[in-house]
């Protein structure tokens, strides 16, 4: 480590290219940056790294969809931007669900409304309780939002996301229930990866009073 005796540009500190300038006991020293850093290989460190990577990918997906991003942007969740709000919220939720990462498409619903969903090899069925059913029927515009996370390599933590927003109309209901063919939503390739995880939530948009509401997100592993 070399000592810096005369700083032409004034007092320096921090990183400059391959150099690191430090001040110790009032004296400045210069050293070369190491090309390699020791990375922790502990189980916890690997888990945290994979967790952050998964949540970032999820947050970017949600932030890229205008009507989902808009909800987060206008929500009361603390954050600099819609993306930061999505990231912050889902980092806290990750791992809550034992069967799937605890992601949410929307901020926690104020009215605590939720749908009940089941997924088979062929269909996604969503059941609306009486209160939510009436809200949907009386609302100007509603969408059933279904995000599919496909884990193509559990060993290397690689996944991709597909999302579909289905307009909800009265003729879709059968006894407060909506059933949709998976292949109609995601194509025939949907059955190629049986380890898919589905995240399901409803968005309600009332044009008359400009009120937007949504349900909590339910997850289901196919």
Describe the structure.
- By secondary structure, the chain is an alpha+beta fold.
- It has two domains: 2-32, no CATH class; 43-221, Immunoglobulins (Immunoglobulin-like).
- Helix content is 25%, strand content 33%.
- The chain contains five helices and twelve strands.
- It has helices spanning 43-63, 66-74, 82-93, 130-138, 182-186; strands spanning 2-4, 14-16, 19-24, 27-32, 116-119, 123-127, 141-153, 158-167, 177-181, 197-206, 211-214, 218-221.
- The strands form three sheets. Strands 7, 8, 10, 11 and 12 form a five-stranded antiparallel beta sheet that branches.
- A hairpin with a 3-residue loop joins strand 5 and strand 6 (123-127).
- The longest helix is centred in the first third of the chain and has 21 residues, at 43-63.
- The chain is elongated.
- The mean pLDDT is 80.
Compact description:
The protein has 222 residues and is α+β, with helices and mostly antiparallel strands.
List the defining traits of the structure above.
222 residues; alpha+beta; Immunoglobulin-like; 2 domains; five-stranded antiparallel β-sheet; four-stranded antiparallel β-sheet; elongated
Helix content: 25-40%
Oligomer: single chain
Largest sheet: 5 strands, antiparallel
| N-to-C SSE string, H for helix and E for strand | EEEEHHHEEHEEEHEEE
Q: Count the domains.
A: 2
The CATH architecture assignment of the largest domain turns out to be Sandwich
What general form does the structure show?
elongated
Structural class: alpha+beta
Q: Give the terminus-to-terminus CA distance.
A: 58 Å
Number of helices: 5
Any idea what the CATH superfamily of the largest domain is called?
Answer: Immunoglobulins
Total count of strands: 12
CATH class of the largest domain: Mainly Beta
Low-pLDDT parts are none
* Mean pLDDT over the residues: 80
Radius of gyration: 24 Å
Provide the β-strand percentage band: 25-35%
Reported by name, the CATH topology of the largest domain is: Immunoglobulin-like
């Amino acid at each position: 480590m070399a000592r810096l005796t005369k700083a032409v540009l004034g007092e320096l500190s921090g990183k400059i290219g391959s150099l690191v300038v430090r001040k110790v006991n009032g004296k400045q020293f210069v050293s070369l940056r190491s090309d390699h850093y020791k990375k922790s290989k502990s189980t916890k460190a690997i888990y945290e790294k994979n967790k952050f990577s998964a949540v970032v990918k999820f947050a970017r997906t949600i932030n890229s969809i205008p009507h989902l991003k808009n909800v987060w942007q206008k929500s009361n969740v603390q954050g600099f931007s819609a993306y930061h709000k999505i990231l912050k919220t889902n980092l806290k939720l990750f791992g809550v669900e034992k069967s799937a990462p605890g992601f949410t498409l929307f901020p926690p619903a104020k009215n605590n409304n939720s749908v009940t969903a089941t997924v088979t090899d062929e269909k996604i069925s969503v059941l609306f309780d009486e209160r939510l059913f009436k809200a949907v029927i009386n609302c100007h515009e509603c969408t059933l939002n279904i995000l599919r996370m496909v884990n193509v390599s559990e060993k290397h933590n690689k996944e991709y996301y597909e999302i579909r927003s289905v307009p909800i109309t009265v003729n879709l209901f059968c006894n407060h229930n909506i059933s949709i063919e998976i292949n109609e939503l995601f194509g025939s390739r949907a059955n190629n990866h049986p380890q898919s995880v589905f995240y399901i939530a409803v968005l309600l948009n009332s044009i008359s009073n400009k009120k937007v509401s949504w349900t909590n997100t339910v997850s289901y592993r196919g």
